[in-house]
């Protein structure tokens, strides 16, 4: 009898592995086949004006991504933040921009999005120059965790979406981290699909990162502010998230200031936003 039970369990496990992808594809197809709710359209027009700048085919693709994203991801309100369709659609629209034209999954490691009314405190440890570990608590607009969570401040989410040309968007930033971490490491080198692509990616990213670090040091010494947000000089992971924000919100300027960087991001995201 124990052997029979083990055999049955093994067969059930095999059946699950075979059937799971088909079930997921069916469920997502069903979500995308539903009509996009009129109220969600009104939310996009009111809260995410950048959607209207997309070509018509990408607008349609984005709406289908939003439908799947909202069917699969849980939203949790924190510190009294209510979770409404306005919150869910506004966040999903910005997160799904990074999925346009790209094969793959809907942030497979992500289970839930936590939303605070405003900036929230995050405790972390930092090692100073003397090697002493210090505990700090910083206010943050967003966080991306490898444990399957993205945390966002709702007021900064709205502010980032309201101006699609300022190069600052906390949702795009944190979901770029989610893409980055799909390789198992959050290091500024997301899954490029082909091993031979990493050499060019590394060369371009490292050069631009080094330039930003130099420009940030010069700014601290009284020089002009660099084109890219100095926060990107924190480390390569933050650099990737920062340049992703600029790629989607200031693509023409990025293509002029850093043409090689723009080309690498355009190849990765399979988009050419400078032409929109």
Summarize the SSE layout with pairings.
Blueprint: H1 2-33, H2 38-47, H3 56-72, E1 74-77, H4 85-96, E2 112-116, E3 120-127, E4 133-140, E5 142-145, E6 149-153, H5 154-162, H6 170-180, H7 198-220, H8 236-249, H9 251-257, H10 259-269
Parallel strand pairs: 1-2, 2-6
Antiparallel strand pairs: 3-4, 5-6
Helix pairs in contact: 1-3, 2-4, 3-4, 4-5, 6-8, 8-9, 9-10
Protein name: Zinc-dependent peptidase
GO molecular function: aminopeptidase activity; metallopeptidase activity
Organism: Aquabacterium commune
Helix content estimate: 40-55%
Supply the CATH architecture of the domain at 187-276: 3-Layer(aba) Sandwich
Written as H for each helix and E for each strand, in order along the chain, the element string is HHHEHEEEEEHHHHHH
Using only C-alpha atoms, the radius of gyration works out to 21 Å
Q: Give start-end ranges of low-pLDDT stretches.
A: 8-17
Largest sheet: 4 strands, mixed
Could you please say which CATH topology of the domain at 187-276 applies here? Answer: Collagenase (Catalytic Domain)
The helix-and-strand class reads alpha/beta
DSSP summary: helix tally:
10
Give the CATH level 1 class of the domain at 187-276: Alpha Beta
Spatial strand sequence of the major β-sheet: 1-2-6-5
Number of strands: 6
Shape call: globular
The span between the termini is: 65 Å
Q: What is the fourth-level CATH superfamily of the domain at 187-276?
A: Collagenase (Catalytic Domain)
Give the overall average pLDDT: 90
**What is the beta-strand fraction?**
5-15%
Organism: Aquabacterium commune
Protein name: Zinc-dependent peptidase
InterPro entries: MetalloPept_cat_dom_sf (IPR024079), MtfA_fam (IPR010384), MtfA_N (IPR042252)
Pfam families: Peptidase_M90
């Amino acid at each position: 009898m124990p052997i029979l039970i083990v055999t049955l369990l093994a067969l059930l496990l095999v059946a699950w592995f075979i059937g799971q992808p088909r079930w997921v594809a069916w469920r997502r197809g069903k979500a995308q086949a539903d009509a996009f709710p009129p109220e969600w359209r009104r939310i996009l027009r009111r809260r995410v004006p950048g959607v209207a700048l997309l070509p018509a085919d990408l607008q349609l693709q984005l709406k289908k991504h939003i439908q799947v994203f909202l069917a699969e991801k849980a939203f949790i309100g924190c510190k009294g933040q209510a979770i409404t369709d306005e919150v869910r659609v506004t966040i999903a629209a910005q997160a799904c921009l990074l999925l346009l034209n790209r094969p793959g999954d809907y942030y497979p490691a992500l289970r839930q999005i936590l939303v605070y009314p405003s900036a929230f405190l995050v405790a972390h440890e930092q090692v100073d120059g003397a090697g002493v570990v210090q505990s700090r608590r910083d206010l943050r607009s967003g966080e991306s965790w490898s444990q399957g969570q993205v945390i966002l401040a709702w007021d900064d989410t709205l502010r980032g979406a309201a101006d699609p040309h300022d190069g600052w968007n906390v949702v795009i930033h944190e979901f770029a981290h989610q893409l980055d971490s799909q390789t198992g490491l959050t290091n500024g080198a997301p899954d490029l699909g082909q091993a031979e692509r990493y050499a060019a990616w590394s060369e371009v990213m490292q050069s631009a990162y080094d330039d930003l670090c130099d420009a940030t040091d010069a700014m601290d010494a009284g020089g002009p502010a660099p084109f890219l947000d100095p926060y990107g000089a924190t480390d390569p992971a933050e650099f990737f998230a920062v340049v992703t924000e600029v790629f989607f919100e200031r693509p023409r300027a990025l293509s002029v200031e850093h043409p090689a960087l723009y080309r690498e991001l355009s190849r990765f995201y399979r988009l050419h936003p400078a032409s929109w």
